[in-house]
């Protein structure tokens, strides 16, 4: 079009949008088609649900040392870490066995029913764990909680489906940040609220329910938050397409008119979706999942080790922290992670690709953990200050790595396979995370038994092995192992 003898660039987009009445997936697609903005309301509900599902995972770590001691199952103090590892692993073992089934159910019946089921299981079985009177009841309740809480995979699929492509990184970072905060705030709740009859006798007398069950209060608080998440599921819209398979994809015709002086008109029609390949043969997906498993093994072992190491006595190379001290460190880490997510993460995500975010996060983690044995030699204000800073940076780096790999996974599959793909990812990751507490607890017990060794004594060996796992993951981010989809 010419105005005053000048030509103007012109871009006209005409779309034939196929909409199926009554299909929730089509409703979401139409909403995204009509609204270019970020779906803040949906992401808020996503954040609440994921936070509630992640809180119980590591909330036990600050008091697990004392809980195992109260069960009187360990014959020596050095053996407490060994028994604690199996309780910590029970959740992940249960999740590893059922994640694929939950992902498949989410692809068949919808994301919302699976999400509701998972949050309800948190309310029930996390409460039962707080009421555990012996070692086997603790393991059983944690195993059932992990088996029935199949929230993470469907929520990842949901977050990528409720956002337009340009906002998918933000949607998945909402999942990663809520999950990361849950893994930090959960232990903070456990640290502050465990053994309330000893810490707050005025409010919780020794003869009260919380005096008889010293670890029930933190579990009750988390279960109450999960109940809020169950209620919020009412406003969570479904995103799965529910109509014939041959009708699942909308046909869009786009007409692009380039500046008039060029005299060119380009008409393009998107290709039909290709036949869906087997997920196990999708190497961009599988390579991202394998990487994810390695880094999650490291993070879970670190989480188990950090709380046990911090509460271990100085004579065994620990920090002699109380459960409240550990809670304070983890609460500060959570606050720092939240600030990073709100202020700095958008800038990082725009500047770096998901894979580069993962690489940088892994490299910095190795450097950071090398300083932990040195920090342990300090005391007083210097110890408190530096352990808070180190813990905050460690959790920020973990969330960066997880977010980058989640983006790679979700971009490597179509919507109809996303639930199953995330189910495979969660199942594999849970198997590795089930090993994490066992590896971490056993490693800590072994390291505390060799304080006088000439090569990497005590905590030096602990963090050397953690760094070795992280380094293996870093090496695997390089070609030719890692593969990228065309969409990445």
UniProtKB/TrEMBL annotation:
One of its GO terms (cellular component) is membrane. GO terms for molecular function: transmembrane transporter activity. Keywords: Membrane, Transmembrane, Transmembrane helix, Transport. The keyword Cytoplasm does not apply. The keyword Transmembrane applies. Residues 42-485 form the Major facilitator superfamily (MFS) profile domain. It holds the Pfam family MFS_1. This is Major facilitator superfamily (MFS) profile domain-containing protein. It comes from Kalanchoe fedtschenkoi.
């Amino acid at each position: 079009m010419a105005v005053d003898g000048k030509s103007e660039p012109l871009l006209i987009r005409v779309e034939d949008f196929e909409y199926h009445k009554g299909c929730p997936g089509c409703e979401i697609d139409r909403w995204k088609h009509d609204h270019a903005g970020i779906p803040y309301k949906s992401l808020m509900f996503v954040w609440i649900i994921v936070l509630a599902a992640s809180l119980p995972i590591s909330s036990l770590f600050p008091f697990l040392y004392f809980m195992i001691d109260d069960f009187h199952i360990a014959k020596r103090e050095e053996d407490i870490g060994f028994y604690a590892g199996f309780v910590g692993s029970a959740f992940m073992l249960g999740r590893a066995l059922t994640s694929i089934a939950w992902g498949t159910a989410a692809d068949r019946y919808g994301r919302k029913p699976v999400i509701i089921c998972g949050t309800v299981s948190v309310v029930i079985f996390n409460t039962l764990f707080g009421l555990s009177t012996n070692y086997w009841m603790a393991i059983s309740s944690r195993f059932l909680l992990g088996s029935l809480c199949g929230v993470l995979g469907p929520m990842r699929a949901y977050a990528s489906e409720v956002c337009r492509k340009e906002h998918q990184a933000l949607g998945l970072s909402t999942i990663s940040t809520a999950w990361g905060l849950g893994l930090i705030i959960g232990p903070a709740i456990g640290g502050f609220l465990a053994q309330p009859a000893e810490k707050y006798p005025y409010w919780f007398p020794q003869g009260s329910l919380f005096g008889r069950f010293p670890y029930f209060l933190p579990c009750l608080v988390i279960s109450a938050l999960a109940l809020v998440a169950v209620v919020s599921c009412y406003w969570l819209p479904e995103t799965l397409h529910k109509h014939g398979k041959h009708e699942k994809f909308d046909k869009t015709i786009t007409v692009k008119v380039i500046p008039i002086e060029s005299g060119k008109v380009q008409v393009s029609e998107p290709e039909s979706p290709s036949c869906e390949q087997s997920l196990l043969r999708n190497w961009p997906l599988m390579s991202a999942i394998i990487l994810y498993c390695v880094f999650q093994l490291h993070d879970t072992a670190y989480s188990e080790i950090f709380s046990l190491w911090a509460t271990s006595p100085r004579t065994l190379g620990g920090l002699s922290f109380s459960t409240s001290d550990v809670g304070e460190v983890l609460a500060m880490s959570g606050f720092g992670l939240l600030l990073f997510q709100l202020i700095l993460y958008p800038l990082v995500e725009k500047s770096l690709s998901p894979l580069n975010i993962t690489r940088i996060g892994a490299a910095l983690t190795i450097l950071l953990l090398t300083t932990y044995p040195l920090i342990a030699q300090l005391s007083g204000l210097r110890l408190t200050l530096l352990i808070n800073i180190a813990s905050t940076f460690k959790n920020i780096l973990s969330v960066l790595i997880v977010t980058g790999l989640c983006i790679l996974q979700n971009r490597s599959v179509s919507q109809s396979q996303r639930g199953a793909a995330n189910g495979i990812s969660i199942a594999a990751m849970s198997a590795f995370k089930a090993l994490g507490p066992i590896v971490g607890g056993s490693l800590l017990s072994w390291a505390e038994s060799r304080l006088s060794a000439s090569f990497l004594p005590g905590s030096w060996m602990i963090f050397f092995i953690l760094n070795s796992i992280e380094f293996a993951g870093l090496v695997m981010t390089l070609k030719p192992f890692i593969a990228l989809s065309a969409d990445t």
